[in-house]
Known about the structure:
The chain is α+β, with helices and mostly antiparallel strands. It has helices at 29-42, 76-85, 105-123, 144-153, 178-184; strands spanning 2-3, 8-14, 17-25, 48-57, 60-66, 91-98, 127-128, 132-139, 157-163, 167-174. Helix 2 runs parallel beside helix 3 (105-123).
Amino acid sequence: MFYVKTEYRIDYLLKKSRFIGIITPCLTEQEVSNTLHQLHQEYADASHIVFAYQLKTPTGLIYRFHDAGEPTGTAGKPIYQQLEGKHLVNVVISVVRYFGGIKLGAGGLTRAYGNTTRQLIEAAELVPYIEWTSLTLVLAYQEFPAFEYFLKKLEGRIIEQVFMECINLLIELPQQHVAQLLARYPALY
């Protein structure tokens, strides 16, 4: 899976219609809503503002797409198919359309929205998505230096540490390395 860290925009012209592709990082549906509201203000004179998004949550993926008045299935779905095909999460892709006076037909619209999205994704800098897990551990003082070194090798980080009789730690590390860590250091959860 991949995501973007910053917003990217592209312009695509087809038969006098202007398509502006915008990919924006978003972590919640509220952020998506705020982003779309901003776009509606920025492009208040646009013919259509079509979008699709996919968010990774603790309970799974949330996705939506919307045709914004275009014929059903010709706008939001092609955007979502590109987003899904490239395994993007935590982004909203919007395509703003200014009608140029020449009708594109259902197939033409589908291709236009799909091509705009494809070009946008190719232009954006995609970053691999890393799913993080938090664990609580208790270590003896003599174990700490070796643990710290091992955690660094696993790309983990210490979030909180409390020094008492033992060291109580709250750590975060990529999900893919949890089994390796737990094989060596049992967690409290």
